[in-house]
Amino acid sequence: MKQSLVIVKVGGKIVEEPETLGKLLDDFNSIPGNKLLVHGGGRSATALAEKLGIESRMVNGRRITDSAMLDVVTMVYGGLVNKNIVAGMQARGMNAIGLSGTDCNVMLSDKRPVKDIDYGFVGDVRSVNAGFLASLIEQGIIPVLAPLTHDGRGQLLNTNADTIAGEAAKALASAFRVTLIYCFEKPGVLMDENDDNSVIPYLSYYDFPRLVQDGTISGGMIPKIQNAFEALQAGVSSVLITKAGNLDRLTGTTIAL
Amino acid sequence: MKQSLVIVKVGGKIVEEPETLGKLLDDFNSIPGNKLLVHGGGRSATALAEKLGIESRMVNGRRITDSAMLDVVTMVYGGLVNKNIVAGMQARGMNAIGLSGTDCNVMLSDKRPVKDIDYGFVGDVRSVNAGFLASLIEQGIIPVLAPLTHDGRGQLLNTNADTIAGEAAKALASAFRVTLIYCFEKPGVLMDENDDNSVIPYLSYYDFPRLVQDGTISGGMIPKIQNAFEALQAGVSSVLITKAGNLDRLTGTTIAL
Known about the structure:
The structure is a homodimer. By secondary structure, chain A is α/β, with parallel strands linked by helices. The first copy, chain A, has helices at residues 18-30, 42-51, 67-91, 130-138, 161-172, 208-213, 221-233; strands at 4-10, 34-39, 58-59, 62-63, 96-99, 107-111, 123-128, 142-145, 148-150, 156-158, 177-184, 202-204, 238-243, 253-256.
């Protein structure tokens, strides 16, 4: 029987403000067994860019990353957010290690080809060094992954944190029984976006097209759920969509094939 | 017989500009065997702080680190400089991992007590996780250490890169035959500061007080050499002071007890 591994992705202001971060790390600490955290940091990146007079341009929720913006996200994701999360974990007795995709080749990627849109220095994941991550986890270490990858030729690349979590989950599924948890601002996928009590407890591959068609699921939730299905098809045991505040009880929307 | 380990500390603009960084990494790559790199990044930190309207205050060459400046150095040292060095190493076939002191508790420190000067969020190293560093090195991985530590209670602290290198060297001396190399802008300790051909090839513990007294050695070189003596007393095999451009031939000033 494989050991379990819980992979949590958290983004948004919860990881960027000391008070909410503290609560998140307490909740994360309450999850038993092997763990891995993937974080975002977009609000801080946008804030730093603004202070530096660098314009943030988003297309379909993705950040256009020119050279100056790449430096910003390298500083914010790889430095500020990552190291503060790790320090907060260490303070709670969790032996964490902060990693970007370039550290030990954890995630190699290819610069996204220019089609309609030039996303700039954005990488699509090519490979994951699952062996290295697994060896850390087996030593009781908690990897904390920043959403940065590299092309193996010296170029850092900005990569969506949901994608990082999904790719890590898929790559580690051969070594662990993986539960992938996407945290966002709502307690799950909602039937009514204005009613937090309308969480869909169980969302299957067969329900999905209908819920997209009738508009129940829209926007950034669509790629998130597509990532979830891909992860399940690649051997991830279960995927949960919830809000960070529910990490201590693990309620939300379970995605199933 | 212990395996050898070469620890190189480089600071200054050489690690902060793509062109000089490339040459440095080529030279570093030419050093055979186990390696560890410690970097600075002060110029970039000062430049970013200036853009953000944060004043850089230095006392005796040390940076006063208030909360805003701590964020700056966390971004620059832990993110921008560290991740670009690691990406450059990976591109050259060196399997590097970027680490701050909080990652796997690599370096725990104590916030410096306020005496005459309040240095702010500056840490004096308390302990080094030599076991974790040694296990990486034994796997053929090159640790790349940013000059950041933490107090174990969630607080990141800014720590001088020379000190980081010295502490790493001392802590790893029981597992490896350690050579510690401090790179700075001159080819070694000079008899005449205006003549790069006046390198003192061999500087002993007995010569040191005289050379300080007659003014040959002054300023920031004094703590650097004191660090070197401490490292030797703690079991480090040899210490070399040189410039980064000489890393491919390892000439410079050898410090000896």
